[in-house]
Design brief:
The complex is a heterodimer of chains A (about 110) and B (about 110). With about 110 residues, chain A is an all-beta fold. Chain A has no helices and eleven strands. Helices cover about 0% and strands about 60% of the residues of chain A. The chains are: A mainly beta (about 110), B mainly beta (about 110).
């Protein structure tokens, strides 16, 4: 069956460290992958998009990698801050289907 | 300010009492959709609309209706709500379709007793 998996356990890290979140998928042929941030009680907010033929994308302190061989995307936040605490969702767009969202990983950055 | 608005933000109702959740966007987007978000299941698409008068089912359409009479509005209708429709609902829009960045509304928390 087709699945997108994100670590359901919260990730707790210290301020200033790099946070790394994982998105794994099976049985999809993705055209591209997106990452969103969701704060409690709010709608998701788009952060980054990476296409299937791209290995890495950066935006300020954010970096996304996409390995279609491993069927995995990694989302990095460098020099993390308490304000980065939120749930991060990955969303995959297969070539022939609609956008599919993962369940999200909650990141907690403590001082 | 470019945004997607939803109303109401919170709603408690009883089984069988018809309700409508409104969604409006001011970005002239063609594509709009509705999602529900449940713990452990993530965001699941209910219905989407490619343009005015064009709507189609998503992954979990049972028990819901939508309409797209104007480009900016995409209401979600529950004709006879049931407790299993208790959820957090999000409306989203994008410029031209599923491939574009989705802009989400603030969410509507619905409880059906």
């Amino acid at each position: 069956s087709q699945k997108i998996e994100q670590n359901s356990e919260a990730l707790n890290i210290q301020e200033g460290k790099t946070a790394t979140l994982t998105c794994n998928y099976t049985n999809y042929s993705p055209a591209y992958l997106q990452w969103y941030r969701q704060d409690p009680g709010r709608g998701p907010v788009f952060l980054l998009l990476i296409r299937e033929n791209e290995k890495e994308k950066r935006k300020e302190r954010l970096k996304v990698t996409f390995d279609t061989t491993l069927k995995q995307s990694l989302f990095h936040i460098t020099a993390s801050q308490p304000a980065d605490s939120a749930t991060y969702l990955c969303a995959l767009l297969p070539h022939t289907d609609k956008l599919i969202f993962g369940t999200g990983t909650r990141l907690q950055v403590f001082p | 300010e470019a945004q997607v608005t939803q109303n109401p933000r919170y709603l408690i109702t009883v089984t069988g009492k018809k309700l409508t959740v409104t969604c409006s966007q001011n970005m002239n987007h063609e594509y709009m959709s509705w999602y529900r978000q449940d713990p452990g299941l993530g965001l699941r698409q209910i219905y989407y609309s490619m343009n005015v008068e064009v709507t189609d089912k998503g992954d979990v359409p049972e028990g819901y209706k939508v309409s797209r009479k104007e480009k900016r509005n995409f209401p979600l209708i529950l004709e006879s709500p049931s407790p299993n429709q208790t959820s957090l609902y999000f409306c989203a829009s994008s410029a031209s379709g599923r491939m574009d960045t989705q802009y989400f509304g603030p969410g509507t928390r619905l409880t059906v007793l």
